[in-house]
Amino acid sequence: xxxxxxxxxxxxxxxxxxxxxxxxKEIERLAYEYTEKxxxxxxxxxxxxxxxxxxxxNEAMWESSGELREFEQxxxxxxxxxxxxxxxxxxxxxxxxxxxxxxxxxxxxNEKEEEQIYVGIGSLFDKEENLIVDWRAPISALYYEGNVGxxxxxxxxxxxxxxxxxxxxxxxxRNATITGMIDTDNVMGDxxxxxxxxxxxxxxxxxxxxxxxxxxxxxxxxSTSKNVLIQGVAGSGKTVVMMQKxxxxxxxxxxxxxxxxxxxxxxxxxxxxxxxxVLPSLGEWDVAGNTFSQFITRxxxxxxxxxxxxxxxxxxxxxxxxxxxxxxxxxxxxxLKKKHLKFRDIVLHDEVLISKExxxxxxxxxxxxxxLAAKLEILRVQLLQKLxxxxxxxxDAEWVDEELQHLxxxxxxxxxxxxxxxxxxxxxxxxxxxxxxxxxxxxxxNSQSHIRFLAxxxxxxxxxxxxINLEEFNVSKDDWQEHVKEVVEMLxxxxxxxxxxxxxxxxxxxxxxxxxxxxxxxxxxDEIQDITPFQLKLLKDLYPRAKYVMxxxxxxxxxxxxxxxxxxHQIFKEEEIESHLLLTSYRSTxxxxxxxxxxxxxxxxxxxPIRSREKPAVxxxxxxxxxxxxxxxxxxxxxxxxxxxxxxxxxxGAESFASYLxxxxxxxxxxxxxxxxLNKQVILMPISLAKGLEFDVAIGLGTDEILKGLSKESYQxxxxxxxxxxxxxxxxxxxxxxxxxxxxxxPSTYLHGQETIEVEGGSSNLNK
Length: 768
Fold this sequence. Notes:
Helix content is 46%, strand content 17%. It is an alpha/beta fold. The relative contact order is 0.09.
């Protein structure tokens, strides 16, 4: 039996060696093709630079400009071809080390002839022989859907065929060498999946297609719904499924869908960096990744974003993130068509050209049936017309006389050569001086700087109590007005909170009109619970024709954005949303999730983990040997090469614990800003920046000092999110046995610190 297995392994390795040799030749061929195409592109660039527009006649001008356009189109085509070659080379270079991960033998139920495919991240042909099939191809669904002996129906275009699976084989490959091979009738629960789950975490999310599960595969390949919502417990693979769905869409609709047609949102830049290699590992590049903060700050570059912490001003944030607030802004913009607009004087040389009262008069006399933006556009045109009249009147102004006297001799001679008439020359000079001076004013009118946009936003905030019932958000009118004063102080520093920046941008859109946007076909939002209803409604209005793919877990709603299913359907109105719920947890152990699930605000969505290890352990900071116990625990984990995260509900809480790590003389990294990158084995960070991440060991920081600043609304979600970051082991630090954090928690689901570690001469016993 062992001999047969060895022979089979030799045969598979021999095939893999042949496949790798074909890949090597293909890479070499593409390198030569790339060089040739690059040289041709350079030649085209040289040729295009020599083309001049011939203005001798209309016919000549159109002919020469048409020639230039043709060259530009050829350059675009050549550039696209270069990108395609580069992307194909990148896929093949990944396949050099790991050509494929699975094999399926099968036969059509209507035919007896057996067929065989090998599944990898990309396809490969050699003399019409199909050596590797892309994991996204319809036939590859057999690998994920079928067990040995199963009959699986697959759709190919308009028709459906049934196949029976005869063999399912998985490969573990390293540097093009098969290090393990197993025949299995069920991908779920197989040794290779468990091996992946038991392995150490990494600073980057790795390739995941080899362990894609049946329930996940169906979500990936489902493409009939316009909008998709993927909900799931922590560690259920929501992000993985979303990324694979993006890769699948780019493959299945490659003739109609390009990477630039997809806009992907991640919760923060740290997570964005963490998943940066997932799409390339699936065979796709160039999908634009964004956080919502990046998206909004690019549109308002003059302002800085105020760093927010979990629980900070949550009631005010809940108001500004709500659909009623969005509706209030719409109603306010309609009100502005009649009154309350804030104007400023249009000034030149410290003199008022057009007063704000005059601008207001022009505005009130405009009868427009269109939008607020349309009416303000009419006002802009009227002001430019008024400016032309003022230009003519300014020709004989005293300041023009002064400018004329200070004009250089060279400039005078230049005008003289142009006119050969002193009287005419002076008139031209005066017009030139006026035109130059008024150019700045004209630019300001075109940019609508005669409108006090910031003052308008503050006015909007001040009238909110008349537009919204603040009591529904547990906010009084007096408290709201005090909060508005805080916003005014922030604006003096050109600083906005995320909610204010989003609302201000939405107000600008009402006043300036929807600016030119990329016509994205898909908007993909990870951690959808971190997006406020206001932000999602804004995206929907900006990209009304796009399809939306959303993934999230309401149990991890640490920002309390309150994006309910009702609000989701309200935003999408009559549009269909295909919902999926993933309950199997591939990240954390049964013991960790049994503890964490007691903090879930939606207990019906408890996780179903597939691994077991040690129970979570609680350390009490009031015990005399606390510091030494936890230090020894962490040192033993560091020795094993495990990645460890100290996770606090807030930045302030993380800072308060830093002194312990300093005293323990542990090399660690503080992550307090989303622009930081994870690069050390031990991390100290707030949970807001750890969304979506996973660590071998997570230590939740829950001392009384840290608990003090937390709002009760976000309490459960914060701790559920912290605990579910742990893959293999969870520790919790609290002040004492009477801590509020553990009230009502089943004591059998965790161990006390003294039960998990005994310090004897610097050694530790973790498995007692």
